[in-house]
Amino acid sequence: MNTRRRAGDTKGALSRGLLAARSAPPAAPAPEVPDEVVAEVPVAVTTPEPVRTAKQRTSKFTANLDPQLALAFDELAMAARRRLERRVDKLDVLKALIMLAADDASLRDQVINEIENSGGGRR
After folding, report:
1. Angle value at C-alpha 22, between 20 and 27, nearest 5 degrees
2. 8-32: buried (b, 16+ CB within 10 Å) or exposed (e) per residue?
3. Which pTM value belongs to this model?
4. pLDDT tens digits, residue range 47-102?
5. What is each CA distance from 97 to 23, 76, 91, in whole angstroms?
6. What are the domain boundaries of the chain?
7. Alpha-carbon gap, residue 111 to 104, rounded angstroms
8. Closest by Cα among 60, 101, 95, 93 to 74
9. In which element (H, E) is residue 111 found?
10. Nearest to 73 by CA among 92, 93, 87, 88
């Protein structure tokens, strides 16, 4: 038994709904409006599209911390989470430290002195 449809059968099945819509009575025509009647069209208020700037390039760094320093970093992040009562990423902590040291001359000097005294850095 061949259950294969013919192309004409498929076309007929698909266009049945279209033919029914065509044979429906036409909708009532729109009422006549005199030419003197002018409707005020509200002016759409649009906000200007924000100017897209080129995506800022970021720098990636890997910090290899010894266990004691990693623990201190974790404790600092946890203290911030507890005080702010929200999630605080370690990146946020690092950014805040960098910005504070960059803005405050005395803190910047303390950081530089700590680097000098700890023998940090490579030559």
Report:
1. 110
2. eeeeeeeeeeeeeeeeeeeeeeeee
3. 0.49
4. 677 776 777 888 888 989 999 999 999 999 999 999 999 999 999 999 999 999 99
5. 75, 11, 10
6. 67-118
7. 11
8. 93
9. helix 105-118
10. 93
